[in-house]
Each structure stands twice: as structure tokens, then as C-alpha cells.
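User: Structure with protoporphyrin IX containing FE, C-alpha cells only please.
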Amino acid sequence: MTQPSTEWREHVAPDEAAHLVRVAKVIGELQRARSRKFGRGRALHRKQLLAAIGTLEVLDGLPDHARHGLFARPGRHRALVRLSNGGPEVQANRVPDIRGFALKVLDVSGEATFGGTADHQDFLMINQDRAPLTNSREFIDFMEAATPGPVSGVLHLFKAHGLAGRLGRLRELFGMLNRKFNGFAAERFNTVAPICCGPYAVRVRLAPAGSPPPGGRAKDIVADMRERLAVGSLTYNLELQFFVDEATTPIEDTSVAWPDAETPIVVAARLILPQQGVDAAAADAEAARFDPWGGLAAHRPLGEVMRARKVAYFESQKGRDAA
Ligand code: HEM
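Assistant:
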């Protein structure tokens, strides 16, 4: 097995500052357009599907390379979870979409990313092990084109890529969106973009563990989770997947899945969602700020996509009075 490496590097393009101004503009316009239609809400991941409270148990006996930040000491933390559809629309859950799993770990104390002290650590994950687009420029081009509506976004993909590229890119995007989603109790979730774990770089993942309480009578992904949590608890392993080298585990290309077979993976914690009626946490989760930059300096987000997200999430939080 390849060893975890601290030799990761970030790349900053000379025109990044101008790009970040554009990120804020495009995200703000997208959010305002959808808020006129649906009411105040997030620019992306607008539709909250379900909220839950839980406990994150950091495990004892972790290897040295995992023992940083939140994972430095074993212990229990309260957690808040927001499950969402990824798009800017509010639409039926059967429509193919990226699914979001946002996790806020509370009762944390340590140096924050931007100085001062952090009392929480957020992890934002999706049901994919890679992003549909390579970098935030492609992502923002797509979002700008999609602001009038989803169809214009697809037309943009046709125009933006050459004859050879466009069909491949579209197939890839639709393949991801159409991959059967087996529900939040059964799927794996991934931060896709890397963060620090002390001097190392990791992607963070959640994998269902143990046997989930029965559900699945309902076809709808929300009803499925409600049924399960009404009768029992759900457990997920929180895994750290370590950077090994730029070719195998690129920092700057989120469209590449980091291969399990060539990367050290550590189960660092267990997330437990106990039996509960899920409506209790709904208002808190809707109002909360889940932000990849909200947390410990030891888990600073890495790479160009993450820096663009710093601007995008702040813009979206301002647009829904959560900043
Ligand atoms: C590449 C990996 C990414 C992952 C895993 C991811 C995941 C998520 C998740 C789970 C949420 C929902 C948070 C919640 O429930 O409150 C979210 C929200 C959001 N995402 Fe991302 N995202 C990614 C990339 C991006 C990029 C590249 C952008 C734009 C540059 C972006 C912009 C947003 C915005 C604006 C929100 C709404 C923020 C708010 O108002 O709270 N995301 N993302």
C-alpha cells in the first residue's frame, strides 16, 4: 500500500482574483433568479430533503497520520445533518440530481481557518466520488448558462465543447446524474475536493455501516429515511482517504476519483443518527451555514475549487441572510 504523503501542492492561476469576482457575480445572479421563483433559499442545494441530529464518535487508536484536528483525540461530538438535492431548482425528488450530505460536527475547539477559535467542523459531501466538471471555471460557466433555466445549461455544454468533447462530456454528466441512487441509508458520500488533515491532504467520505433499520417501502428518498429513523438508528463510517501523489490523487482536478486500491484509507470516526422524528431539526438545518471553510485550520480546504467555494458560499449565505 502506498504511504500517505505531505508533498501535495496547490496551484494558483495568475488571474484567480478576477475569476473569484465572477464566481460571486454568477452565484448571486443564479440565487436571485431562483429566489424570485421559489422564495429565499440557497443558490445550490436549495431543496432540503431531511435534517437530523446525530453523534460523531472519533475513534481511539488512530494511526499518527490521521490524528490531527477533529481526529486528534477520541471523543463524542453532537452533529447536525442536512440532506439535499444539489440543483438550484425545487423539483420532484425522482428527477435525477446530485444528492448532498452536509455534516456539521459541534463541540469542537481549536484554531479556526481564518484565525480565532472554531467551535465546529463542517464536511460537505455528495453521492459521487468525483465532480462532473474539472474545475470551478467550467462549473461557473455552466452555472451562468443555467441561470435562465436548466435547458440553457445543457445547450451551453453542447456549444462549449468541440464535436469530440461535447458528447463525451454530456454523457459523463448525465451518467452521473442518472446513476441509480439507492437512498441516503445505502449510498456513500464524498467531499470530492480535498482538505488538510494536519500536514496531509485527504478526501473525507461516509460509508453506511452495520444493518440499517428497515425502510424502503417508500420509493421516495425522503420517506425512506423517515421510515428508517422512525424505528431505529443509522450508522456511517467516516473515512479519511489520503493523498499519495499528484498523478494518483490530484489536488486540483475534482473530476478524478481517487482510487481506493492505491490510497491509504482510515476509518476515523462513526456517525450515528439515532431514532428520531426528523422534523425537529428541520428549521435549524435550513438556517445553518454549512461551509467547507467553516472549521479548524488543521482541516483547511485545498485547491482552486475550494477557494472558489469560499466566495460562492459566502455570496449564497448573504443572499439568504445567513452570513
Ligand atoms: C466539488 C465538490 C463540491 C461538493 C462536495 C459540494 C457539496 C455541497 C453541499 C453538500 C451543499 C449543501 C450544503 C447545505 O446543505 O447547506 C452545497 C451547497 C452549495 N454549494 Fe457546493 N459542493 C461542491 C462544489 C461546489 C462549487 C465548485 C461551487 C461553486 C463555485 C459550489 C457552490 C455551492 C453553493 C453556492 C451552495 C449553497 C451554500 C449555502 O447557501 O449554504 N459548490 N455544496
